[in-house]
C-alpha cells in the first residue's frame, strides 16, 4: 500500500478537505477562501491522486517484472487526508483476503509529523492486516539518480554560458521547530540527501531552504525559500533553479508555492527562476522503490514499529 497526502478534486471539496487536515478544528472562512484561491490558480483541483495512482501502476509493474513467475504483486493507494482514505483502503484489502502488506509513504524523509502520521492513521484503522512499515528512503539510489537527471535537464533551460553558475535551491516542506525537542531525524535525513546530490553534481552552486510552512503561530523550520531567493538576489544572482527533494509529484506545494508565489517574487526581482520537473512516475524512482520493497519482504522481517504521536502532532 503506497500512501500520499491527498487533496481536493474540486473547489467544493476544499472546506471538508481542510477540516480533515486540521483534525476537524474550526476553519475560518478566510483560510478556506485563501486556500480555495490557491487551488483556483492551479486549475481548481489537486492532481495528487492521479499522479499517485500512476506511481502505483509503475511500482506494481516493476515489482512483477523483477519477480519470479510464482510471485504476483498488487499495489493499493491510500490517502491520509482525502479519498480514498487509508482506513478504507485497508478495509478493501482485508475484503480481498490480504493478511500482510508493506506500507510505503511517497515521501522520502521521516518525521513523526509526516511519515509517522501516516502509520498512525493506519494503526487507528485497527486493521487485521500485518503492515510492515518502510519509514524512509532518503538515500535510495533510484531516487537520487532521478533527481540528478531532472536537475541536469532543467539546467538546459538556462543560457549555456550560465549553467555552471546557476544555484540549485534544494527545498522540503517546513515543519514546526518543536520536532527538534524529540530528536526527530527529519533534518538529518534531508541533509544526507542534499549531501548525496552535491556529490553527484560536483561544482554546482547550491542553497538550502524550506517551503510551505502552515498558517500557525508556531515557529517553523527555516530559512524560507522566499528569504533565500531574496538573499541570492542581493548577492548578484539572476538565475536560480528549485529542486524540491521533499516532494515526489506535482501538487499545491509545487504548483502554487513555487510556480506562482516564488516565480512571481523572482520576476519582480528581475531574476529567472525555474524548477525541475517533479519525479512523478520516473522509471528510475519506481524501479528502485520496487526493489526496496522486494528486499524488505525477502528479509522476512515482517515487524511493525510503534510510532507515538501527541494529539496535536497532526
Structure description:
By secondary structure, the protein is α/β, with parallel strands linked by helices. It folds into two domains: 2-136 and 283-298, Rossmann fold, CATH 3.40.50.1400; 141-275, Rossmann fold (3-Layer(aba) Sandwich), CATH 3.40.50. It contains eleven helices and eight strands. The chain has helices at residues 14-21, 29-41, 48-66, 86-95, 115-124, 141-155, 186-200, 225-234, 252-255, 257-268, 283-298; strands spanning 2-4, 77-79, 100-105, 130-134, 168-173, 206-211, 239-244, 272-275. Strands 2-1-3-4 form a four-stranded parallel sheet, with helices on both faces. Helix 6 (141-155) packs antiparallel against helix 11. The longest helix is centred in the first third of the chain and has 19 residues, at 48-66. It is globular, with a radius of gyration of 20 Å. The two termini are 21 Å apart.
Amino acid at each position: 500500500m503506497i500512501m500520499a497526502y491527498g487533496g481536493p478534486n474540486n473547489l467544493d471539496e476544499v472546506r471538508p478537505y481542510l477540516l480533515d487536515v486540521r483534525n476537524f478544528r474550526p476553519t475560518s472562512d478566510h483560510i478556506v477562501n485563501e486556500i480555495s484561491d490557491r487551488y483556483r490558480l492551479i486549475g481548481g483541483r489537486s492532481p495528487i491522486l492521479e499522479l499517485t495512482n500512476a506511481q502505483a501502476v509503475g511500482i506494481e509493474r516493476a515489482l512483477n517484472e523483477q519477480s519470479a513467475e510464482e510471485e504476483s504483486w498488487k499495489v493499493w493507494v491510500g490517502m491520509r487526508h482525502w479519498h480514498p482514505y487509508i482506513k478504507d483502503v485497508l478495509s478493501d484489502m482485508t475484503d480481498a483476503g490480504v493478511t500482510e502488506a508493506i506500507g510505503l509513504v511517497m515521501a522520502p524523509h521521516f518525521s513523526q509529523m509526516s511519515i509517522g502520521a501516516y502509520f498512525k492513521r493506519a494503526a487507528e484503522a485497527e486493521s487485521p492486516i500485518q503492515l510492515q512499515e518502510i519509514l524512509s528512503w532518503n538515500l535510495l539510489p533510484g531516487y537520487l539518480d532521478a533527481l540528478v537527471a531532472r536537475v541536469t535537464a532543467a539546467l538546459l533551460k538556462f543560457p549555456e554560458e550560465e549553467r555552471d553558475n546557476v544555484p540549485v535551491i534544494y527545498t522540503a516542506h517546513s515543519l514546526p521547530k518543536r520536532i527538534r525537542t524529540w530528536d526527530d531525524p527529519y533534518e538529518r535525513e534531508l541533509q544526507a540527501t542534499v549531501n548525496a546530490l552535491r556529490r553527484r553534481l560536483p561544482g554546482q552552486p547550491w542553497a538550502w531552504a524550506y517551503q510551505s510552512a502552515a498558517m500557525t503561530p508556531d515557529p517553523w523550520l527555516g530559512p524560507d525559500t522566499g528569504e533565500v531567493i531574496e538573499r541570492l538576489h542581493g548577492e548578484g544572482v539572476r538565475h536560480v533553479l528549485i529542486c524540491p527533494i521533499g516532494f515526489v509529484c506535482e501538487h499545491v506545494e509545487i504548483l502554487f508555492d513555487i510556480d506562482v508565489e516564488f516565480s512571481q517574487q523572482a520576476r519582480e526581482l528581475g531574476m529567472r527562476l525555474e524548477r525541475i520537473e517533479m519525479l512523478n512516475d520516473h522509471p528510475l524512482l519506481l524501479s528502485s522503490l520496487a526493489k526496496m520493497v522486494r528486499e524488505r519482504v525477502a528479509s522476512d522481517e515482517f515487524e511493525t514499529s510503534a510510532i507515538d504521536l501527541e494529539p496535536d502532532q497532526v
